[in-house]
Amino acid sequence: MSTDSNKTITAGLLAYGMSGKVFHAPFLNAHNGFSLKAVVERSNKNAERDYSNVVSYNSVDELLADEEIELVIVNTPNNLHYEHAKAALEQGKHILVEKPFTATTAQAVELFNLADNVGKQIFFYQNRRWDSDFASIKKVLASGKLGKLNEMHFRYDRYRNVIGPKAFKEKAIEASGLLYDLGPHLLDQIISLFGKPLSYHKILGKNRKDTLVDDYFSIQLSYPDSVNVFVTSSMLVVNPQAAFVLHGVYGSFIKQRADIQEEQLLAGMKLTDEGYGIEPKGKEGLLTTIDEDGNKTETLIPSEIGSYLPLFDAVYDSLTQNKPYPVTRQDVLVQLEIIES
């Protein structure tokens, strides 16, 4: 990965579980503008097997005390994001924070003010803006082939009928539950396309036996010109529906969720390996349009190659060239307002 600057930004990861191993370390390692110096591993020391030069600290405080580290990735459990983001800013670090950024808008505004006071930048890890399937949605919308959009559905479904072991997702604590887990992904994609809705209506559900948190949500968002958007997620979908459904005056577009990066990285694939980020055959989106005579045309729309590396490009360019980061504070405040309402 080439950069427009000779500066190398020294980074640290606050956790080296699945998110650190899959969503952050490979990209920091592949990007010429970053140097991954350290991770926090309280018990099992796994990072050195993947990156021989990485320092493994025993605690967040130890990593934050490392004066060489300029950028801290806050990828700890959801309920700790605010606490760790605040601590990193107070130690003079720039931060890249996983979703949800915080549990409340009040916490977010406090961190924004703190960052401004200490002269550091906050970045939001909304990686689903760089999914291959979402890229096809943007491509179809930009083409104008649907005409005026009237209805859009985004879904993110799973089947997990048992209560999971992660307390920050399953216990009745701050920022837990499915809405805080997958809501930020779906809402950020919509907000990146259309901005703040005119109004919204939210439904939550608890369907698994003995669940303490929501495991279903559906949110209807109203936008100008009669555009209605629905985002839905459930943990009890055995046969997943299409993840993306768009309807316009001249046609419809149907697409399965198909970004393969997470699966590939978990399997040990490198960013430079052939086939990285390419959706499997048969996952193309189906665009169906109709002309003035009522004739239908069906076209398969392949997705772009998925890669989260441009997210790290954007962080680097903002730090070294002061370029605007694509996920804005206002985007996050709108998202949090809907989630916490």
Helix content: 25-40%
Supply the CATH class of the largest domain.
Alpha Beta
How far apart the termini lie comes to 41 Å
| CATH structural fold name of the largest domain | Dihydrodipicolinate Reductase, domain 2
Biggest pleated sheet: 8 strands, mixed
How are the strands of the largest sheet arranged?
8-9-10-7-11-12-13-14
Shape, per Cα inertia axes: globular
**Which sequence of SSEs, written as H and E, runs from N to C?**
EHEHEHEHEHEHEHHEEEEEHEEHH
Number of domains: 2
Number of strands: 14
Summarize the topology.
Elements: E1 9-13, H1 18-30, E2 34-40, H2 47-50, E3 55-57, H3 60-64, E4 71-74, H4 81-90, E5 94-98, H5 105-118, E6 122-125, H6 132-143, E7 149-157, H7 167-170, H8 178-194, E8 199-205, E9 216-223, E10 227-234, E11 244-248, E12 251-255, H9 261-266, E13 285-290, E14 296-301, H10 309-321, H11 329-340
Parallel strand pairs: 1-2, 1-4, 2-3, 4-5, 5-6, 7-10
Antiparallel strand pairs: 7-11, 8-9, 9-10, 11-12, 12-13, 13-14
Helix pairs in contact: 4-5, 5-11, 8-11
Question: Care to describe what's here?
Answer:
With 341 residues, this protein is an alpha/beta fold. The protein folds into two domains: 131 residues, Rossmann fold; 178 residues, 2-Layer Sandwich (Dihydrodipicolinate Reductase, domain 2), CATH 3.30.360. 32% of the residues lie in helices and 24% in strands. The strands form two sheets. The chain has an eight-stranded mixed β-sheet with strand order 8-9-10-7-11-12-13-14, with helices on one face. Strands 3-2-1-4-5-6 form a six-stranded parallel β-sheet, sandwiched between helices. β5, α5 and β6 form a beta-alpha-beta unit. It starts with 8 loop residues before the first strand and ends with a helix. 42% of the residues are buried. The mean pLDDT is 95.
